[in-house]
Design brief:
The chain has 366 residues and is an alpha/beta fold. It has 13 helices and twelve strands.
């Protein structure tokens, strides 16, 4: 596992090095957004989708704010708003940002389709838009995220490994993310590419708004329909839902079956330590956030993204969007030290609180 973590770290480093062709160092060629050249005194609008998932307030926002300051000699300003999982609210927030004449927008869409009209408003006002983490529709100028199909494949492969011979006999439940999130469809596609034909999928759900309570209710329904002795594992698309799923499993007296996750949330990592959750997908947020800030500052300053964005991605509405896709790693109890601790996401003390200390000691997390 250490070799896998090192390989991923090397991949992430490559992205970081690519990002070193920073906004300040990029060529002077004006971007197709038509944005006029500006100096360091820029205003970056940052719109994040919700605050129930720990990552957005704990990692994404402060990381982007820090990188924008660094790239603009402390002169750049980040104007922030969180939609709290409401697409209409996010559209209004875009309107406000346009009215306040921000120089560039970074948008993590609540609903990738519903945001398209607002993206066009920004574009019409001469404000370039960076789609962050989710591929928003509309005339976006740049996109950064993780390779989402690979995320699903990573989860599916881990689940099959954990199941072993049980994959032949039992059934799993698939708990996908929200149908309004294009990432969720990609996670699901990646997972199916690995799981189909290898294990029977007894029940599958698209979970409204990614909410743990909805995943909990869906899991209760699956247990009732399939019978608690027939379920051998659960594909959960993220850690928040995994928490709701595991609560339902415990209530039904089901223990020791593998449950996947994503985002390496602290509660998820602690469940991995204790054995309640099998794995999560660790996504190096600092890499993604830094790239988004690099893109935003470059676009605001009218500079080319050629040295930064080596990939091209098609959305349903826009072709060949300049993109950077950051690699991910399967997080299990075997590589916690080499991933989230090594990268400074958490400390051992963060993870190994009182009820988890004995489990931490058992796996050598001290």
């Amino acid at each position: 596992m250490r070799r896998a973590a090192v390989a991923i770290a090397a991949g992430a480093m490559a992205v970081s090095l690519a990002a070193c062709g920073s906004a300040k160092e990029s060529g002077d060629k004006a971007d197709s957004s038509g944005s006029a050249k500006k100096g360091d005194d820029i205003k970056v609008g940052l719109l994040l989708p919700e605050n129930a998932t720990a990552r957005y307030e704990k990692f994404d926002r402060p990381l982007i704010e820090k990188k924008v300051k660094e790239l603009t000699n402390g002169k750049g300003e980040v104007v922030y708003a969180n939609a709290k999982q409401d697409a209409s609210t996010q559209n209004q927030q875009v309107d406000t940002m346009v009215t306040n004449k921000v120089d560039v927008l970074i948008v993590d869409a609540v609903d990738s389709k519903a945001i398209a009209g607002s993206v066009k408003k920004a574009k019409d006002a001469g404000i370039p838009v960076v789609a962050y983490d989710r591929l928003a529709e509309g005339p976006i100028d740049a996109y950064t995220s993780f390779d989402n199909e690979t995320v699903g494949k990573t989860q599916g492969e881990a689940l099959l490994k954990a199941l072993g011979d049980k994959a032949k006999d039992g059934q799993i439940v698939m708990m996908n993310g929200s149908s309004t999130d294009p990432n969720a469809a990609q996670f699901k596609k990646g997972a199916h590419s690995v799981l189909d034909g290898k294990v029977k999928i007894g029940r599958e759900y698209d979970t409204k708004e990614w909410k743990p309570e909805n995943a909990n209710a869906n899991m209760e329904g699956a247990i009732s329909a399939l019978g608690k002795d027939k379920i051998v594992g659960v594909y959960s698309a993220n850690d928040g839902m995994a928490g709701g799923i595991i609560t339902a499993l415990k209530a039904a007296g089901i223990a020791d079956i593998p449950v996947t996750g994503q985002d390496a949330e602290l509660a998820g990592v602690q469940r991995i330590v204790s054995g309640e959750q099998y794995m999560s997908v660790y996504k190096p947020y600092p890499q993604e956030a830094n790239v988004a800030a690099e893109m935003a500052v470059a676009l605001a300053q009218g500079k080319s993204l050629d040295s930064l964005a080596k990939d091209k991605v098609d959305s349903p509405t826009t072709k060949a969007v300049p993109s950077v896709l950051v690699p991910v790693v399967s997080l299990t109890k075997d590589n916690i030290k080499d991933t989230v601790i090594k990268d400074g996401i958490y400390t051992v003390n963060d993870i190994c609180t009182g009820k988890y200390k004995a489990a931490c000691d058992k796996i050598g997390l001290k």
